[in-house]
Design brief:
Length: 661
């Protein structure tokens, strides 16, 4: 089959069979700001949503926040605020971040919204109506994991912790139960008849093995918690947080409300995208609730892997979260979007580090993709008066390569093999580079001028590049727009047909501009960043007496060790920006004994002129360090709020040199 035919079939079959596409992410807890794991899930869902939209599908993309339950109640109490105050604050960080990383969701649901309340009560009502014996009051004892708010099977508990290392406690509860045990066989039959229900297959095997052990009834109310939806008929209980949370996927569509047109249009979900830790909730409990209520089941639960740090899952409870806000600020959202989809084999775990992200950024984006684009556009501009060449070409090596890789790419996108999808784009990119090297257009131009042969060669290179960028469009939407506009190609409706050869207009202005992905000096950047990180400890909260274990990685120090730090008040006498750095400011500070230079990464928030005359707190006995060529003799203390520095200051009357203890 020719590649046009494959693309045409692809498009046609989607129009016929996949006209709607409803994709959801897990809803994220609001006990903490989002980290790389949450960002990853939203990025992957966004890639799928964007890809389906350009296929012509009627896409609905839902994300949101999980705001009820003990986790949130406790986190709020710890902060001394009400649960809804905590939720209101954290949900804002989700909204901001989604915007910053270009997440094109159609809807964002919070479980504290009235529509969620309505949906949950309706699901409950339908279960009671169809299968009244499925919900009953009973007593249950077992190993309860507070962190996950769930009972853990006996065989998964060892030495007081579950398989993920969470503490469990033997607990007895008098609660309402859902007769999950009655669904064991129906669920197993469903997995047999729909082997694609859980993806990847290893996750399906785990789910089947879990259900085959026989399911125990599930407690679906809590009397120990106040923060939740009151249990129908017994307001001393609230509805179990997972029953509440899972229902978000239908309440967001208006399930149970007077207007359920969206529910009719989009349900069942095509993909519930979740991390592998919560596949069980989605592939066992959720379908059982829906079966009991007589609601159609989702089509597929996709379980992605974890981002790790030093081989441990990145999570708040392990105290090792990574929030690459700096990376997004400094290199743009597409650097992160590219890295997480290129580096991680979808479905598997992957270690995260800024270093590996920047290494990939330099090699793949700055060098391969960015340089090739700049080179080709510059040649076209130089040889053809600032325009794309006048003669197109429909028979050449690049065209053949494009026809080979595009169907492969589409298959990979369909199979959620994002890493392979990037690789196919890079196959074409490297063919473009070889093509340019062998044709030597610069030599041709010198010898024969901008003739028709040269026009074809340059047009081919630009056209193939256009296709590479269109392949990357769901992953790097912002940069793709920019690249296509530089190429003189249409930017607005990048549909699947844009993957076909021949879309680049002739004789159209191109734009030579600064690199889309400027190369980074990794060692220097990491040095600068490390310095900022030590200067702005994330622990802004005052120290509290605690019997809790110290999170891994933060060792306790003795009072003697602390006393070795020379903390003192200093006065800023002069300040200026370090050339070529957005963040670094070079200050001359008076320490009470001497005047010295200190460099600090505070330039995104403070202007040099606002700093002069200010009293700050410094670490005066730090070893000197060079930052972008400037020697820094000490460190200015600042708190860090989502990566933004806020200087620690003292009253203006405190003389420079005063010790801080
Ligand atoms: N609130 C529940 C989900 C309810 S869905 C009806 C929850 N929230 S969570 O905030 O803990 O996690 C949200 C999603 O982020 C989950 O799919 C989880 O697997 C994912 N991740 C959390 N940490 C992760 C990594 N370190 N790496 C990748 N994703 C992980 O669970």
């Amino acid at each position: 089959m020719t590649s046009e035919l494959i693309i045409a079939r692809h498009i046609e079959s989607r129009v016929l069979t996949m006209s709607k596409f409803y994709i959801t992410t897990a809803i994220h807890y609001v006990n903490d700001d989002p980290h790389i794991g949450h960002m990853y899930e939203n990025i992957v869902a966004d890639v799928m949503a964007r890809h389906r939209r350009r296929m012509g599908d009627d896409v609905r993309f839902l994300t949101g926040t999980d705001e009820h339950g003990q986790k949130i109640e406790r986190a709020a109490a710890k902060e001394g605020v009400s649960p809804i105050e905590l939720a209101d604050r954290v949900v804002k960080t989700h909204h901001d971040l989604d915007k910053r990383i270009n997440i094109s969701y159609d809807d964002f649901i919070r479980t504290t919204e009235p529509r969620q309340h309505i949906g949950v009560l309706e699901l409950f009502r339908r279960i009671q109506e169809r299968n009244p014996e499925d919900i009953y009051l009973g007593e249950h004892s077992g190993w309860y994991c507070q962190s996950e708010e769930t009972f853990v099977p006996e065989n998964q508990v060892k030495d007081g912790v579950d398989q993920d290392g969470h503490k469990v406690e033997w607990t007895t509860e008098r609660n309402y139960f859902f007769k999950l045990s009655a669904y064991t066989h129906r669920l197993l039959a469903h997995y047999r008849e729909h082997p694609g229900f859980v993806w990847p297959p290893t996750r399906l095997n785990e789910v089947v093995a879990f259900v085959e052990q026989g399911l125990k009834d599930l407690s679906i109310s809590r009397s120990s918690i106040k923060w939740g939806i009151p249990f129908p008929g017994n307001p001393d209980h609230v509805i179990y947080v997972w029953f509440d949370a899972l229902t978000n996927y239908i309440s967001a569509l208006g399930f149970g409300s007077a207007d359920d047109a969206m529910f009719q249009r989009y349900w069942p979900a095509d993909i519930h995208l979740v991390g592998k830790d919560i596949v069980r909730f989605h592939a066992v409990y959720w379908p059982a609730f829906l079966m009991a209520a007589g609601v159609e089941l989702p089509k597929r639960v996709v379980g992605h892997g974890f981002w790790l740090r030093d081989q441990l899952k990145i999570s708040k409870s392990l105290g090792n979260v990574v929030r690459p806000y700096n990376i997004i600020d400094d290199f743009g959202p597409d650097a992160l979007r590219y890295y997480v989809t290129r580096e991680m084999v979808f479905g598997q775990d992957q270690d995260y580090s800024d270093q590996s992200l920047l290494t990939r950024y330099n090699a793949d984006l700055a060098n391969d993709l960015g340089n090739t684009l700049s080179r080709a556009i510059t040649m076209s501009s130089n040889y053809f008066g600032g325009k794309t060449p006048p003669t197109p070409c429909d028979d050449n090596d690049l065209l053949r390569k494009a026809k080979e890789v595009v169907p492969e790419y589409l298959r990979n996108m369909d199979e959620l093999a994002f890493q392979r999808a990037h690789e196919t784009a890079w196959e074409l990119l490297s063919a473009i580079n070889s093509y340019i090297v062998t044709r030597e257009p610069w030599k041709h131009f010198k010898e024969k001028g901008a003739d028709e042969t040269l026009s074809r060669v340059i047009w081919n290179a630009l056209e193939a590049l256009r296709i590479v960028w269109v392949m990357e469009a769901p992953f790097m939407p912002g940069s793709t727009r920019e690249a296509l506009s530089r190429l003189g190609a249409p930017v607005d409706r990048i549909e699947t047909s844009a993957l076909e050869w021949g879309g680049l207009p002739v004789d159209t202005p191109v734009r030579v501009a600064d690199p889309i992905f400027p190369r980074v000096d990794i060692a220097q950047y990491m040095g600068e960043k490390r310095m900022e990180e030590t200067k702005q400890p994330e622990t802004a909260a005052p120290p509290v007496e605690t019997t809790q274990a110290v999170p891994p990685g933060i060792a306790k120090i003795s009072i003697d060790q602390f006393m070795e730090t020379d903390l003192r008040v200093a006065e800023i006498r002069a300040a200026e920006r370090v050339p070529k750095s957005k963040k670094l400011i070079k200050m001359s500070v008076f320490t009470g004994e001497d005047e010295r230079t200190i460099v600090a990464g505070i330039g995104t928030v403070y202007a040099p002129e606002d700093l002069v005359g200010r009293k700050v707190v410094i670490v005066a006995n730090l070893q000197p360090a060079k930052l972008m060529g400037v020697e820094s003799n000490g460190m200015v203390l600042a708190a860090s709020i989502n990566g933004e520095p806020s200087l620690v200051s003292v009253d203006a009357s405190v003389p420079a040199g005063t010790k801080v203890r």
